[in-house]
Amino acid sequence: xxxxxxxxxxxxxxxxxxxxxxxxxxxxxxxxxxxxxxxxxxxxxxxxxxxxxxxxxxxxxxxxxxxxxxxxxxxxxxxxxxxxxxxxxxxxxxxxxxxxxxxxxxxxxxxxxxxxxxxxxxxxxxxxxxxxxxxxxxxxxxxxxxxxxxxxxxxxxxxxxxxxxxxxxxxxxxxxxx
Length: 178
Description:
Layout: E1 5-7, E2 10-16, H1 18-35, E3 42-47, H2 51-60, E4 66-76, E5 79-88, E6 98-106, H3 110-121, E7 126-134, E8 147-151, E9 157-158, E10 174-177
Parallel strand pairs: 3-4, 3-6, 6-7, 7-8
Antiparallel strand pairs: 1-2, 2-10, 4-5, 9-10
Helix pairs in contact: 1-2
């Protein structure tokens, strides 16, 4: 991995390597392929941050499935605003379906809570949550996160789809504030 990277006014240092990410993604895909083998899930990818994780994950998912995308926002700068705005909604009929929410990172759980409320109203069969990263110290909601790539402390990270004010998403590795 490279040394420090500068994004806007902050420096970040290497934190999680591309190889560690690849291993975590394959582990999640293996679990999904086993647990949902007799199902036909729809993967609900939360944009923008989840795009890299979703692409890598779904290349490893071998069961029949569908993929859809929604866009929500709850961050500004390096902290959650606490407000979630659904920008692009779900257009597929998911009544009676297994839905796998694909998140880049689960920290406060505010986004998940909003999504779970929406999905409950749509009468889905079951909802599973897959995330590349989980911050267990920050997560205070009651929803089970079924598939976790890597647990991290409550640090601000960028790369692999995660951003700082829209920048840094394109980094192959994950970096933490230096």
